[in-house]
Specification:
342 residues, alpha/beta, TIM Barrel, eight-stranded parallel β-sheet, three-stranded antiparallel β-sheet, 13 strands
Length: 342
């Protein structure tokens, strides 16, 4: 997919290989109606939305000790990156083994999961018509498998009242490469979001759907949100989502700014969650963590990024170092949990 800006209009060429399927211009009434009509078929959750959610990103998952360390923490929620590409290895061919085991272990720890449907399979080949169709099928399959009373609870010892009820649809679609595998395209994301909503709610009407967390970097998040409003894409979500890196001390200001972006479109405000927040600068980690925990009440949900450093020599976001030794921030976080009744 390519984004072409010409004469102030955003033209989106949705293509299958080199063959164009359709040329969408969100400034042209008939194309706006087409996308809006799809987004207007989406329905909200029939369930309630959790408040005062506190969690951590369970990342990276390249060592089984990560789950052991998680079990030693009383954090009530985790954000779990579920890679579609790892499960649907071929068109309609599923391998649930690894994901089943992971969800089962987290269930045994009595922690709630925010699941991210992320990284579409390579066999889609950036065929956007196929992506739009297959995301609905996969979203229905994964919601049905992991909902309370779903397939996993029927084949394991997981209690039937346990399941994944919160689904985030991709990650940072305004910044290519962190879950959204193609160039930034708000209209294509709106279509994918609508189709995922349809699939998930077909399997579990009480599931809550989060918009992908927008990045403060990359394509300007305000413009991306404006397109979401213009195309009725926020009809497809129950929770708005942002990654407030760089907004320490300013969480309430950010919430107000999100509301101000939506207001001209007549879109009512929805709960806002911050599903990633942190820093890779270890000398600032303690201060940033304290600021995040102090202001997390501005949002309905707050997830620290992340449990463990991603690499031994860079991307040191973790409460644990890559070798699993504990940073001061680990103790600050666990003390906060205990002091607040977790």
């Amino acid at each position: 997919m390519r984004i072409i800006i010409a004469a102030g209009a955003l033209l989106l060429l949705i293509s299958c290989g080199d063959t164009p399927l359709s040329l969408l211009d969100p400034g042209r009434a008939e194309d706006v109606r087409m996308i809006r009509a799809l987004c207007d078929t989406a329905v909200p959750t029939t369930g309630s939305i959790a408040a005062n959610v506190l969690g951590i990103n369970l990342f990276p998952l390249d060592d089984v000790r990560t789950l052991t360390e998680l079990s030693n923490m009383s954090v009530p929620w985790i954000r779990l990156d579920i890679r579609w590409s790892d499960i649907e290895t071929g068109d309609g061919v599923y391998d649930w083994h690894t994901c089943d085991a992971l969800v089962h272990e987290v269930a045994n720890q009595n922690k709630q999961i925010l699941g991210i449907i992320n990284h579409w399979p390579g066999w889609i080949n950036n065929d956007y018509e196929k992506l739009s169709n297959r995301i609905e099928r996969f979203a229905e399959a994964i919601a049905n498998r992991y909902r309370p009373g779903g397939v996993l609870s029927q084949i394991t010892t997981i209690p039937t009242n346990y399941g994944i009820r919160y689904w985030e649809i991709f990650n940072e679609p305004n910044l290519q490469g962190y879950g959204w595998n193609a160039p930034v395209n708000p209209a294509q994301y709106a279509i994918v979001l609508a189709r995922a909503n349809i699939g998930i709610h077909r399997a579990d009407a009480a599931a809550a759907i989060l918009m992908a967390g927008l990045s403060p970097d990359g394509y300007p998040w305000e413009k991306f949100m404006q397109m979401m409003c213009h195309l009725h894409a926020l009809n497809c979500v129950d929770i708005i989502n942002f990654h407030p890196y760089g907004w320490a001390d300013r969480f309430p200001e950010l919430i107000a700014k999100i509301s101000n972006v939506m207001r001209p479109y007549g879109v009512p405000m929805k709960p806002v969650w911050f599903t990633e927040f942190g820093t890779s600068e270890e000398q600032m980690l303690d201060a940033i963590l304290i600021k995040g925990l102090t202001q997390r009440g501005a949002a309905g949900g707050f997830f620290w990024f992340c449990l463990r450093d991603i690499r031994p020599d860079s991307e040191k976001y973790g409460l644990l170092r890559y070798d699993f030794s504990k940073k001061t921030a680990y103790h600050l976080f666990t003390n906060y949990l205990h002091q607040n009744g977790w």
